[in-house]
Amino acid sequence: MLSEEDDVDIHALRRQGMTISEIARRTDHDRKTIRAYLNGDRVPGRRERAAPDSFGRFVDYAAARLIEDPHLPGR
Fold first, then answer.
1. Which of 2, 22, 66, 71 has CB atoms 3.0–4.6 Å from 18's, for a disulfide?
2. pLDDT per residue over 2-30, tens digit each?
């Protein structure tokens, strides 16, 4: 993940005519990371989960149970 400042820097270096490989060497980031930020595939300051949330499918059930019995233990 890049910070806002890093994102601004890589876009400025690209406008100066540097290649992705040059930007990667200069900023010490992977070429694929630089390319993703320049293409807009990634947004600075926001991480995406590597795997989907495993609890997501139980949220509705857990909410219904807690509404039904608010003193239900959380385990």
1. 22
2. 889 999 999 999 999 999 999 999 999 99
Range of the domain at 43: 1-47
CATH number of the domain that 24 lies in?
1.10.10
Share of the chain above pLDDT 90, in %: 57
Q: Is residue 22 part of a domain?
A: yes
DSSP conformational letter for 2: -
The whole-angstrom separation of Cα 8 and Cα 21 is 17
Fill in the DSSP letter of residue 27.
H
| pLDDT, mean over the chain | 90
Q: Please give the model's pTM, rounded to 2 decimal places.
A: 0.63
What are the CA-CA distances from residue 26 to residues 34, 56, 73 (Å)?
11, 40, 53
